[in-house]
């Protein structure tokens, strides 16, 4: 029978992984939603939230790509919609979330990122969870002033091959315009400009303000304009 050769894995790593899994058995179940505009730092905090609470990370874009690549029934439906230039329906996205919840790493719950964006989506998600006797426990709202987001995003430079990102003010490269590791030129993403961002932000506020109101009993407002460590501290307190 084929399988993983454990003799190739460092014993220390193996022991740590076993300890982590044992600790996960005693963790309470949690189902979380992260809400925040582009550049609010959700992506920076979600690995910590996932690891410390033994949850799986469900990002709608990743789930869609995986389902399309695997040619699952929902993936084929989503592909048909995308090829027709239509939006993927809320039912398909909720179906993907339900499918992914069956993965072993989702046993104690999930961190949902990028969904729901509207109240209708929130209602459909709640209906699916109710059928399983489950509910959303917390909604973390990463709140940042629009102007700070504009500063954060318009100052961003990216190394396309690796995805490494820099910021001309907050995290500049050692040499302006050049990647620290390879010495290759950095680029600006075409969407990283003030006009595009302002229209994305106004759309975000219009859509998600009602979602925050819908979940108001479960919402914890995170002051996401603070330093990374301080934001992580707020998140830990919100989930304690």
Automatic annotation (TrEMBL):
One annotated GO molecular function: AMP kinase activity
Keywords from the UniProt entry: Kinase, Nucleotide-binding, Transferase
EC number, as in UniProt: 2.7.4.3
Domain Adenylate kinase active site lid: 156-191
PROSITE patterns to which the protein is assigned, alphabetical: ADENYLATE_KINASE
UniProt keyword Glycoprotein present: no
Superkingdom classification of source: Eukaryota
InterPro entries the record matches: Adenyl_kin_sub, Adenylat/UMP-CMP_kin, Adenylat_kinase_CS, Adenylate_kinase_lid-dom, P-loop_NTPase
Reactions that this protein is recorded to catalyse: AMP + ATP = 2 ADP
Family: Belongs to the adenylate kinase family.
Task performed by this protein: Catalyzes the reversible transfer of the terminal phosphate group between ATP and AMP. Plays an important role in cellular energy homeostasis and in adenine nucleotide metabolism.
Xref: NCBIfam families: adk, PRK00279.1-3
PANTHER family assigned to the protein according to its UniProt record, in alphabetical order: NUCLEOTIDE KINASE
Record's protein name: adenylate kinase
